[in-house]
Write a structure and sequence with these properties.
It is built from four helices and six strands; from the N terminus they run βαβββαβαβα. It has about 160 residues and is of the alpha/beta class. It has one domain: Rossmann fold (3-Layer(aba) Sandwich).
């Protein structure tokens, strides 16, 4: 079995910790928990060719006033850019973060996760903008930590992309 480090990156309160808890522990809580620094979990995913132990780094949220610590990304094999479907400004942070990470780390496998899919009435992301991102090569999955939609699939897919790279 091989181990691979992955990171969840995005603005404050986009649902990074909720995604990790749903994936690792199969639970969801409405209670908001702020991540300070980084929280690390691990879980084995089964890929047809082999099992992969994911070392999951849940990074503290980023806003327009904060920067990610570059040292947290050392050794990462891939990452998720996490975007809140109800807050368009989190998409802007993800786009800036992707550009920054690509400059620092080069081309690493990543997937953009649009969270809170269950909140359809509150959705505020521009679908044309997302389509343009996909056309430019971004892989985007809509997820819900509350219902579990696409959470397992997201981690499985990122592990596959990492092994393929």
């Amino acid at each position: 079995m091989i181990a691979k480090k992955i990171c969840l990156i995005g603005s404050f309160a986009v649902g990074k910790t909720s995604l990790v808890r749903r994936f690792v522990e199969s639970i969801f809580s409405e209670k908001y928990q702020t991540t300070i620094g980084v929280k690390i979990d691990k879980k084995i995913v089964q890929i047809p060719s082999q099992d992969v132990q994911l070392m999951i780094w849940d990074m503290e949220g980023r806003d327009e006033f904060s920067q990610h610590r570059t040292s947290y990304f050392r050794g990462a094999a891939g990452y998720f850019l996490v975007i809140d479907s109800t807050r368009p400004e989190t998409l802007e942070v993800a786009l800036e973060t992707q550009e920054e990470l690509q400059g620092q780390l080069g081309e690493l496998p990543f997937i953009a996760l649009i969270t809170k899919r269950d909140l359809t009435e509150q959705r505020r992301l521009d679908p044309h903008r997302l389509a343009t991102m996909e056309e430019s090569g971004w892989e985007i999955l809509e997820t819900s930590a509350k219902t579990g939609i696409n959470v397992e699939r997201a981690f499985q897919r990122l592990a596959e992309k990492i092994l393929d790279s």
